[in-house]
Amino acid sequence: MGKERALVLCGGEGKRLRPITFYLQKTMIPIGKNQRPLLEYTTRLLHYHGLKDVTFLVNYKANQIKNYFEDGKRFDVKISFIHDCEDMRGTGGSVINAYKKKGFSDDDVLLVYYGDILTTLNLRKLIRFHNEKDAVATVALASGFTVRVGLADLDSESRISGFTEKPQLEKPVSVGVLVLKGDVLRDAAETMMGSSIDLMGEIVPNLIRIGQPVYGFVFQDFWYDVGSIEAYEKLDNQRLESSMSFLFQGD
Cβ-count burial of 134 within 10 angstroms (0-12 exposed, 13-18 middle, 19+ buried)? Predict the structure, then answer.
């Protein structure tokens, strides 16, 4: 088995977080009582679970990330940076470009983390599950996701009989964290075409379609998508601190 590496997607323009992202890279927006960058929480979580070989996939306002994190020594991790390719966009394009430039071994275990996600997910358990299943891809799934809007109940004539306010979905949802074998990126680089490739929308579904072993790891831990203005405004900093304070012990 190859090395364990973490790839953090942090190159997007963060259009759903405008106007904040006119000035800040979306992964550098301040959160919590001490107003630390969102990406610092991710970096500390990776370190906490023993993932110390970290690559930031950057593009938009990359220098903000580079100037803050540098080589990662301050966080006891080794950080490298790979710039997205202008000819290959999307989350899938970012990881394929990283594979081409970094030269990951086909046997490497790659933890891919979307940079606008907060979670207390046990990354070590996720990777262990992935290895035990001998999977090519394992997607972290959260159960009990609450829809943020009310759902209308309609009869056959479109008359509303009632509303279900903020229901919980029965099926688990993807949270933007997954584990891949390195050869998945090799194969994607050889077969996936287009100027924009989506990781969860195209690469993973294609693996399922061709019969590759793709698994879901369902967890109950805290997670939150900070990827929109509404979500950022509604982020409960008190809950954030109580949930993730373990990452800052000793500071």
Answer: exposed
